Amino acid sequence: MSKSKFFLEKVLVGVFCAVFLMGSAITVMGAPKKPKKDKTEIAAASEEPATGSMTIVLEPANAQREVGGKVRVHIYADNADTLISMGVQVSFDPAILQVVDAKKYEVFEDGWVMDADGSDATTDDQYTTPAVEIDNINGTVTMIGGRLIGSSTEGLSGKVLLGLVVFEAITNGTSNLNVDLGKYHPNDPADTFNNFVTVGGTVDEPTNVPGDLGMICVVSELACEGDVNGDGVVNPLDAFIFKNAFPSAFGESNYNSICDLNGDGAINPLDAFIFKTDFPRSNCPSCQ
Ligand SMILES: [Ca+2]
Ligand SMILES: [Ca+2]
Ligand SMILES: [Ca+2]
Ligand SMILES: [Ca+2]
Question: Is the pLDDT of residue 267 over 80?
């Protein structure tokens, strides 16, 4: 390992710890840069106002499943502005749902990867820690991520995928999906860490958390999995949405998690079978 690479690794680990443990992102963001600092650039960055309008979005936000069915919920930060860190906790009713899989989006190009040399050709210098924490006893999933790619990190903007959770329906009932920030100070629970930090060093927390951002209801035998637009019936409007997503796999442009009716990351004949058993229907149960 070269000296400079080792240094970069130390810096990145230091930045990571600082962002998530100390919350002093502004100080540490200067660290990976060369000693000669461009004052105009720094001034411009610090004057940049936080947008204040970033929100967390769950897709699907609403779904029905039979007992034993699975739903794959994607977590986005919408209207994001050059994010380099994120931290969310999703709460659910563990009597109704259990998490069978949860992960951050860790694709190099636009995911939560910290890479010391800025090249995806070398992967032994990449960090994706901390691991996603699944607590099926208390009903929480916590995911925290950072994105620092060498010294030219641009951050993630627009509609940014944070990660995904796959739930299995355990018994009849309704579970809200509440999203909160990922980390609060352990000694002072009223204090948050800086969960969402922009590349300019400002903190830009989502404006709609904590909040119930989704609802999954479980109804044995009667669930309308096929109601992909959530209007209470399964009709040609749903078939149109489903057909546009069929076939596809996660990562392809027409993949739509709302149509992934068995939550396995692809929309294929297995999902079509589930859809067809519900089509057409006008007696979908209403969740409450
Ligand atoms: Ca690398
Ligand atoms: Ca059904
Ligand atoms: Ca519908
Ligand atoms: Ca599927």
Answer: yes
Residue 13 has pLDDT above 90, yes or no: no
Residue with tokens 């300019």: 200
- pLDDT the model gives residue 164: 98
Ligand 3 geometric centre to CA of 66 (Å): 17
Q: Which of 220, 251, 278 is the last residue of a domain?
A: 220
Q: Contact at 8 Å (CB) between 8 and 128?
A: no
Q: Are residues 157 and 276 in the same domain?
A: no
Closest ligand to Cα 150: 1
Q: Which residues surround ligand 4, an ion (CB under 5 A)?
A: 260, 262, 264, 266, 271
- Domain range enclosing 116: 3-220
Ligand having the closest approach to the CA of 280: 3
What is the arithmetic mean of pLDDT over 201-229?
96
Give residues with Cβ within 8 angstroms of 32, minimum separation 6: 8, 11, 12, 15, 148, 150, 151
Residue 86, strand partner residues: 145
CA of 250 to the centre of ligand 1 (A): 24
Q: Which helix (H) or strand (E) holds 164?
A: strand 156-169
Last residue of a domain, one of 171, 199, 220: 220
